[in-house]
Amino acid sequence: MANFLKRILLGKPIRTDALNEERLSDRQALAIFGADALSSTTYATEEILLVLVTIGTSALYFSLPITLGITALVLIVALSYREVVHAYPQGGGVYNVAKANLGELRSLLGAASLVIDYILTVAVSVAAGIAALTSAFPSLIPYRVPLGILAILTLMWMNLRGVRSSGRIVIVPAYFFIFAVLTMIGYGLIRYATGNLPVEPIQNGAATLVDTVTFFVLLRAFSAGCTALTGLEAISNGVKAFQSPEPQRASRTIQRLSLLLGVILLGITFLAFQTRVVPTADETVVSQIARTLLGDTPFYYLVQIGTLLILFLAGNTPYADFPRLAALLARDGYWPKQFSNLGPRLVFSQGIVALSAVAILLLAFSGGYVHTLIPLYAVGVFLGFSITQLGMIVHHKRNLTRKKPRNPLSSFKSLSINAIGFAATSVVFFVVLFSKFLDGAWILLPMLTFLLIIMTKIRSHYSQVDRALSPERALLISAPSQRILAVILVAKVDRRAIEGARVARGLHPAAVKALHIAFDAEAGEQVKRTWENFFPDIPIEIRINQFREVIPPVLDFLAEAGKSWTGKIVAVVPMLVLQQPFAEFLHNKTGTRILTAIREDPRSQVEIYEVPVKLKERRTSPRRDRRGATGSRRP
Q1: What is the CATH number of the domain that holds 519?
Q2: Which of 475, 431, 440 is nearest to 215 (CA)?
Q3: Which of 67, 257, 525, 580 could bond to 269 as cystine, CB 3.0-4.6 Å?
Q4: Residue 221 sits in which domain range?
Q5: Quick one: average pLDDT of 383-412?
């Protein structure tokens, strides 16, 4: 029943060799990876004006040069990340750049900042979208949190169906927003050029003198508007999601996204200044501009619908990036290993579900209020920007210091771009951190510390497991043969496999075989070569399962063996025994599920030997199944 519901909701499982078919086209990638950055243009201008208007409406004059500066920063960061996707096409963004150039601590710090940013992006974007909805329909305000949870669950469902499925769903509203906003800006510019642009009266009294504007206020306004850059790094983290050639497609998408960001941001700020729009508590700046230009017409509501949709879709961007980052961390041993497993629809299902769960908790904790969440939003982004820029500086310096650099002029140009980007993003990071420190940004420091401790603890645990299970630590014992077929289930050639071989030989079997389930031919061949180095006298059968399932092929193998073998069949299942309770959550429990499946399989005529392998013990003895003195048999 569970599998039936799973297929109804998510669709049929997809074979591993169809992975390339699940890659994103340029148009889909711009919609999925660009939604977060595009959505930030709906409130970046408002953030600038909120700072400037505190000292008088005459200070709004500075909104245009500030926006020009932010647009220049967008282009610098975009150029930098084009270098990143070519230098590190495996994805991972700040994590891979820092790991290769700055060492473990900075790479983990960058990864931790991204984790926080992705979770906040989902919560903030959904909360902002719900706020836009409840502004139009105040009767829904009491249901703010349930509506937000429903939105997150919908995003989770979309992404669990696969990247192409989510791409098809988000592409229409994303391009609808782009069309609506660019049309509004174009119409406004035409009216400005023809001298027909309506001007709103100044709403907050007499203007103060422009010379009262201090450098610190301008810096605060600049840093507030830099929320427009949130999400710009998303493409570098998901390069592997693109169709081939991945780096070239990712680079083009970054270029298009940065141009869109610059045009929309400048257009909104220019129209806001020319129409004398200032932020109010009841209506957004974009809404005021649209209402001034379009009046209470259907196209005004189309602009508002597009804004609402892009805010919801912004919450979708982390679903394309966070699971891939978690998979990279898991493969390096800093995150639970199961986060690197592809689900039935060729997505990292564990990461998608985990992201949704934490975002739901954060949304519920904040009561669905955007301003409770926003102080942390941009801080983590610019920390990641700064670390990435610094890593790329080291990368280019290494290229220049080679005896024969490949292209010194190109490397020097890239180094200059990254150096300027590092200086700019570092300044913005410290300004944002200190200006919002008492508003809640201080929480970032213990959150980062907590994540760093957790990741290093996980790495330490996996290192201990690898050392304890090392095949060099185990001693093989050969034994004479009798009339039993012993089948050793091999997950990996390590101490578990050696303990399993020891137990199998201790049964005095007539034949011993090993079985390994691989998800692709290359991985299976690697396991086979390693196994034959340690056990040249025990044949191993490699079965490839394109749907990344272990249990069905194991049961099929044992059922086939039962038909061809006239004697007794014993399945030897090595089991890892963990000493620390928290470590139970870091492993897949595949062995336990295999034991349960063998016992429940009606075809099974197999006895089971569970071989516990304890990390702190050099030698272990088999623990026989409770159903009998010599193992468990199903009639």
Answers
A1: 3.40.50
A2: 431
A3: 67
A4: 2-459
A5: 79
